[in-house]
Amino acid sequence: xxxxxxxxxxxxxxxxxxxxxxxxxxxxxxxxxxxxxxxxxxxxxxxxxxxxxxxxxxxxxxxxxxxxxxxxxxxxxxxxxxxxxxxxxxxxxxxxxxxxxxxxxxxxxxxxxxxxxxxxxxxx
Length: 124
Description:
Shape: globular
Largest sheet: none
Oligomer: single chain
Order of helices and strands: HHHHHHH
Helix content: 55-70%
Strand content: under 5%
Number of helices: 7
Radius of gyration: 15 Å
Structural class: mainly alpha
């Protein structure tokens, strides 16, 4: 089961109510949502592929961080998604911005949601 902060991150990226309704954990919440709203899912396998290809060389095999590359496993999905969106916009926010911008520019909203959830939960 996904943690509450994971649900919040995905709701933030995908716009909330429709996603929350499609992934409700109790029948009351599910009944209160629009059944015709499209369901969005988190693709953890796709996220793992992105992580292995683009993240682990600098952030470590378990997102534990290395040298001047920060640990990510201890961050929330919201934090990770926010930073990736900033980098994707081309904004420099730290010493490794050039590297991060080049990787983040390739990510879709769905990729950001997937990788944010994956990194925050896969290494618990």
